[in-house]
Amino acid sequence: MGVSVSVHLRANSWRQKWSKAEAIDLVASHLRRGEWAPLLTTWLGDGETKRREVLSSKYRLVIAAKEPWRLGNSIGARKALVATGREAFVKLREAAGVYGELLDLLGAHKWIDIKLATDDALRVAYRLNTEKRSIDVLREVYKHNNDEIPTQQFSHAEEPRRGAVVVAGVVMYLRLVSGTGGSLLADHYTSDVRKALAIAERLESAGLRPNIVRSGSKYVVYIATADLLRLAERDSKIRRAIALYLAEKAKNGTPKQRDIAEKILKRHLLFLSICSSRRFLEAGIAVH
DNA sequence: GCCATCAATGCATTGTTATA
DNA sequence: TATAACAATGCATTGATGGC
């Protein structure tokens, strides 16, 4: 089985014992018989790994070799594409057998890639822990600051201006973002990082997923389309404000804004049902 | 290839300060 | 006090990135 082979190969220090060319041929012949263990050891040694690719579901087993054609399709002069697809990584993982426990202990970089390729739960956990957004970075920098931000700054019940909504007591401005589909954000500007962090925390405790980015000397706390839509579903004031904002932009915005606003309106019919149809007729929006 | 998001940058209007 | 210079604010735009 894979176990005995891989452990055996290790024990013999086969990489030193045989020439690379011989070793490569050995790996290739084993692989032809469906035996992946030698390939695993070779890949752990001379394999190329791109975690980025694995995480974006691009699975390629590439090994550096002098004569790549012996192993698989050549990529350039020195690399062999041995296999593709997630299944190949599953095979590698299976080939490791008990040896995997050792690799676990070692925290072997490439071994982790194999696990990331084959274990969905691990992928999710990995992403949660490693993919830092700019808000996470900011939080780390300022985490020693546990100073309470006076809540009073949130509590005023002022009426938001046009194009603004109140989210968890925070006045946020609506904003259209161009992309192919267009998005709608709500943001809040402040030049005080700690205020920004406090506001973000408040939004988070309201079940949202805010981010903070720098804009010149300011910090921008914002929530993205998905969050805004969820808010709109359960908060009629927000729903209404968004509907009006979109209608206004679709009518009087710059060409770009009109475009985006119309797209969003058509995609999320929710907002059409909010305002009176007369209002929308006035706004001159044609929705088919 | 499409779409949403990220993050940087741009810009017009409004507010503030300096100087005559 | 008039106004020129500058800064802050409230946005808008855009290229890059990454998932599906």
Structure notes:
The protein has 288 residues and is α+β, with helices and mostly antiparallel strands. It has two domains: 2-129, no CATH class; 152-283, Endonuclease I-creI. It has helices at 2-11, 14-17, 20-32, 37-46, 51-55, 86-96, 99-106, 109-118, 120-130, 134-141, 152-155, 193-205, 225-234, 236-252, 255-267, 270-274, 277-283, and strands spanning 47-48, 60-64, 73-75, 79-84, 164-167, 170-177, 183-190, 211-215, 218-223.
Q: Would you summarize the structure shown here?
A:
With 288 residues, the protein is an alpha+beta fold. The protein has two domains: 2-129, no CATH class; 152-283, Roll (Endonuclease I-creI).
SSE layout and pairings?
Layout: H1 2-11, H2 14-17, H3 20-32, H4 37-46, E1 47-48, H5 51-55, E2 60-64, E3 73-75, E4 79-84, H6 86-96, H7 99-106, H8 109-118, H9 120-130, H10 134-141, H11 152-155, E5 164-167, E6 170-177, E7 183-190, H12 193-205, E8 211-215, E9 218-223, H13 225-234, H14 236-252, H15 255-267, H16 270-274, H17 277-283
Antiparallel strand pairs: 1-2, 2-4, 3-4, 5-6, 6-7, 7-9, 8-9
Helix pairs in contact: 1-4, 3-4, 6-8, 8-9, 13-14, 14-15
The structure holds a DNA duplex (20 and 20 nucleotides).
Helix content: 55-70%
Radius of gyration equals 28 Å
Q: What spatial order of strands do you see in the largest sheet?
A: 5-6-7-9-8
What is the CATH architecture descriptor of the largest domain?
Roll
Based on the model shown, name its key terms.
single chain, alpha+beta, Endonuclease I-creI, 2 domains, 5-stranded antiparallel beta sheet, 4-stranded antiparallel beta sheet, 55% helix, disordered C terminus, DNA-binding
